[in-house]
Structure to design on (717 residues):
């Protein structure tokens, strides 16, 4: 399979949410808003933003508002959390409808997520993870309110989660993981503190994620997975080290994980597809310069043209794009 | 007369509210469990099975119970939940979380109930432990967080104590040694049944920090005893799971922390003439000689070498390492294992020589070294590393 099956993927995304009686639908309710953001982002970079009905999507987003807390939950009736809150803001940004949300209450909720140590929690119950640092920082930047948190402490916490291999973990002492590496690298970019990155050790660690079959894994000795095409690649893109991996082999790997019948992309060839791997496979192809995919800004995982219009950080590498 | 909804029955088992034997662990059985049902016609726990404390739940029953437990909640808003029967809420959330431990709203309800007293903190740990006995559940980050949250209430830090260490701020507990030991055992079971379990290992690292913080001032030696036991558990595990990088990196971190605190590494003879740290490196090099194809072990050795206290290799170790590296590279051939071994060794070699000797590699010299490889994938991937090797950017 060497073609990117855009039309099939668009139809696949449109079909999601049709089976509301599915067990799968209910097992993933706590991720619903995130899933809509993944689907919409994929549609945007495939050049088909109109494939979902804008007002229907926005209506669903607003129905997830948790008025007790002043932020968004993943599904109507679910509790507020930074994960769906960022997804909501990202969706509204893509549709250029951010004013629909209560910006004051959102900023208040997000700022309250920073802990005395500088770490960030996902919600009022306190789970901390460097993912939440990134998510909260991005959400605040999109709302133009990065001033609402303590940047120095945020950096200090991320630094404490840096490991000897140059990678980052979810919490202090936790193993380096590509997902965590991405969020920490992107968070440091937003904070203009890439000096905190252990170079070139981190680039080495990222380059070592590539396996003989061309795919990338998330940690040493683990299997390849298409989603790491985004987590690993975005970090390499931010570090301007995309040439440290074999891009042809990776492109072939991502394309081979497509479902030629129903559309969508899976974690690896032959497995069942889902919207998560679909968007991240497409984002990987974008960074690798695939001609059929529009540019994604890896720092935010938002379409580049939208990020540019909003004056966000734009310093990253895309293969094949003219170097400045 | 209609029988009670499945989730009430299942929830009762989980909260040990029945006359049945105490439930030690839970196992998911395939499909609807009909093959087991036919073996035990007189089963009083039908459609579940309870044999010597092992509760077996057919998948079909669990997910059916999950869906109906979800339907019990019109919404997870406080005002809506307050109007529901609290016993039912406790049963329904335990079933929701057994099937889907990522369901944050369900965990939140339980936290609210724990704060109000509708649920008890000490019993809650048992519910969480039970949920975690299904291997895939033990990967859920929220499960481990809920565990730590409950522990913060059971073992709070004295009000007079100022929390200054970042790790204390992240998990504000004052744990006695036996509780740390219990947590380590629970984590060990989780990583044994679900290998590379990220959040289990992350929890283990938090517990390890807690133990280490007590080891210098340890009058009765209880803390050092637990530390040594954990060290032994890790080396035993690693020696029979040499691709478990989560374990290797955990051990490397443990070794440094112990070296920094000047605690002796168990089972490693301390040679007074050698540099501190060389014992820990030797531990991994010995494993590497036996399993040179294992990426995990190369990375662990590399991990020790990037330490701020750089020159921890003896001259003999350096020579041995270089010899191994070059030998590995030259003998690597076709076949997946040897290919990987060659790739791992090559990457390590280039990185190491670049660091230590500032050797500059050219495409020519690399192709010469790689001439013994028939597979172009290795050549391509190694050449992709050239930008680093020739430049300093």
């Amino acid at each position: 399979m060497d073609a990117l099956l855009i039309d099939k993927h668009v139809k696949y995304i449109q079909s999601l949410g049709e089976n509301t009686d599915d067990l799968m639908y209910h097992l993933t309710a706590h991720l619903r808003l995130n899933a809509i953001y993944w689907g919409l982002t994929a549609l945007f970079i495939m050049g088909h933003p109109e494939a979902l009905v804008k007002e229907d999507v926005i209506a669903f987003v607003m129905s997830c508002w948790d008025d007790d807390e002043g932020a968004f939950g993943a599904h109507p009736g679910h509790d507020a959390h930074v994960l769906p809150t960022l997804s909501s803001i990202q969706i509204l940004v893509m549709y250029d409808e951010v004013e629909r949300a209560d910006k004051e209450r959102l900023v208040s909720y997000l700022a309250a997520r920073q802990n005395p140590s500088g770490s960030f929690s996902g919600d009022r119950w306190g789970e901390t993870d460097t993912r939440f640092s990134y998510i909260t920082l991005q959400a605040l930047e999109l709302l133009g309110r990065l001033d609402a948190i303590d940047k120095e402490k945020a950096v200090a916490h991320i630094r404490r989660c840096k490991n000897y291999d140059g990678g980052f973990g979810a919490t202090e002492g936790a193993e380096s993981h590509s997902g965590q590496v991405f969020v920490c690298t992107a968070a440091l970019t937003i904070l203009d503190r890439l000096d905190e990155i252990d170079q070139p050790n981190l680039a080495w660690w990222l380059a070592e994620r590539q396996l003989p079959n061309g795919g990338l894994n998330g940690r040493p000795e683990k299997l390849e997975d298409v989603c790491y095409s985004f987590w690993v690649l975005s970090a390499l893109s931010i570090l301007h080290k995309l040439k440290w991996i074999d891009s042809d082999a990776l492109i072939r790997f991502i394309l081979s994980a497509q479902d030629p019948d129903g559309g969508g992309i899976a974690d690896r060839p032959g497995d069942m597809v889902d919207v998560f791997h679909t968007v991240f496979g497409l984002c990987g192809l974008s960074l690798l310069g695939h001609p059929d995919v529009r540019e994604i800004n890896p720092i935010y995982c938002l379409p580049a043209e939208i990020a540019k219009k909003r004056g966000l950080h734009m310093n990253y590498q895309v293969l094949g794009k003219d170097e400045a | 007369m209609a029988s009670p909804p499945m989730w009430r029955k299942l929830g009762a088992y989980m909260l040990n509210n029945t006359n049945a034997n105490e439930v030690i662990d839970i196992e998911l059985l395939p499909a609807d469990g009909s093959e087991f049902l036919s073996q035990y016609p007189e089963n009083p726990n039908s459609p579940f099975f309870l044999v010597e404390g092992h509760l077996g739940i057919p998948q079909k029953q669990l997910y059916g119970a999950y869906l109906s437990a979800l339907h019990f909640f019109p919404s997870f808003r406080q005002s809506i939940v307050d109007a529901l029967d609290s016993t039912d809420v406790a049963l329904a959330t335990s079933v929701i979380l057994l099937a889907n431990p990522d369901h944050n709203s369900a965990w939140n309800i339980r936290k609210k109930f724990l704060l109000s007293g509708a649920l008890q903190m000490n019993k809650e740990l048992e519910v969480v432990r039970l949920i975690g006995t299904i291997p895939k559940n033990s990967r859920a980050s929220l499960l481990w967080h809920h565990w730590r949250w409950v522990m913060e209430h059971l073992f709070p830090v004295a009000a007079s104590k100022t929390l200054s260490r970042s790790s204390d701020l992240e998990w504000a507990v004052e744990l006695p040694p036996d509780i740390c030991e219990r947590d380590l055992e629970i984590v060990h079971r989780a990583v044994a049944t679900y290998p590379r379990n990220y959040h289990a290992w992350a929890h283990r690292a938090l517990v390890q920090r807690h133990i280490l913080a007590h080891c210098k001032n340890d009058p009765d030696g209880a803390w050092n005893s637990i530390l040594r036991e954990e060290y032994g558990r890790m080396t035993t595990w690693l020696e029979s799971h040499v691709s478990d990088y989560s374990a290797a990196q955990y051990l490397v971190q443990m070794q440094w922390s112990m070296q920094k605190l000047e605690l002796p590494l168990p089972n490693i003879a301390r040679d007074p003439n050698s540099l501190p740290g060389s014992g820990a490196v030797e531990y991994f090099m010995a494993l590497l000689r036996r399993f040179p194809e294992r990426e995990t072990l190369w990375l662990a050795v590399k991990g020790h070498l990037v330490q701020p206290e750089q020159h921890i290799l003896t001259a003999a170790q350096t020579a041995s390492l270089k010899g191994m590296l070059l030998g590995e590279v030259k003998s690597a051939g076709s076949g997946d294992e040897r290919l990987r071994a060659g790739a791992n060794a090559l990457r390590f070699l280039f990185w190491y020589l670049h660091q230590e000797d500032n050797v500059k590699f050219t495409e020519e010299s690399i192709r010469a070294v790689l001439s013994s490889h028939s597979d172009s994938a290795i050549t391509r991937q190694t050449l992709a590393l050239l930008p680093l090797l020739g430049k300093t950017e």
Observations:
- Chain B is about 60% helix and 5% strand.
- Residues 240 and 305 of chain B are 24 Å apart (CA to CA).
